[in-house]
Amino acid sequence: MSCEIIRDTKCIVVATHNEHKVKELQSIFEKIELVSLKTLGYNKEIVEDGSSFFENALIKAKTIYNEYKMAVLSDDSGLCIEALNGEPGIHSARFGGDIPQSKKNELILKMVKDKKNRDASFVCSLVLYINERRFYIVQEELKGEITKEARGSNGFGYDPIFFLPDYNKTLAELDENEKNLISHRRKASNAIFAILKLLY
To answer: How far apart are CA 195 and CA 72, in angstroms?
Structure first.
């Protein structure tokens, strides 16, 4: 595939195989075509050994840029729980090992069962990597609380255990449009899209 984010074609590779993320991002990036790693047939493992969301997002962006020489949009996101000293944080995707997401959620609920402070944040660090000399980074968060039981069937990941007091719902109880208006990824994506409009 030979599209690039040049004034003519406006195409960006999203450094993920997660089609949920690509769909969410595509609703924001309007006329810019987003291409997933799945579409490109990229199956190599990317070692995310950074110590922060930003470092991991940048590692992914650089790796994919070096492979295709195309502009890359890369994020690293996770759930940070105050009572667990910010965990699972950058380890959110690998937390609990190779078990279903529902089991990961159950494990989190068990770990915070007796905690008075249930405050948590979803964090998204988003990198737009155009080339070696030009890249942009935005980090946003969505504040909430950990529920006492999983609720809702929308969304994915830790959404069913992330409660939003202002809505009296978990993220998984919001419909897609409601979630997209307030999510950590939406906030970061809006900022990156604003940068893109200035550049192109």
So the answer is: 14
Sign of the dihedral defined by the CA atoms of residues 163, 169, 174, 177, in that order: negative
Q: Is 159 a catalytic residue?
A: no
Residues 190, 30: Cα–Cα separation, whole Å: 11
CATH number, domain 11-199: 3.90.950.10
Query: CA Rg, the chain, in Å?
Result: 17
Per-residue pLDDT of the chain (200 residues; tens, 9 = 90+): 445 443 334 789 999 988 878 887 888 887 788 999 998 999 999 999 999 999 999 999 999 999 999 999 999 999 999 999 999 999 998 899 999 999 999 999 999 999 999 999 999 999 999 998 999 999 999 999 999 999 998 878 999 999 999 999 999 999 888 888 898 989 999 999 998 888 76
What single-letter amino acid sits at 114? D
From 76, 119, 166, 175, active-site residue: 76
Q: What is the 3-state secondary structure (H, E, C) of 74-141?
A: EEEEEEEEHHHCCCEHHHCCCCCCCCCHHHHHHHHHHHCCCCCCCEEEEEEEEEEEEECCEEEEEEEE
pTM metric for this prediction: 0.87
**How far, in Å, CA of 69 to CA of 65, rounded?**
5
Rounded to an integer, what distance in angstroms lies between the CA atom of residue 200 and that of residue 195? 9
Ramachandran quadrant class, 180 (left: phi over 0; alpha: psi -120 to 50; beta: rest)? alpha
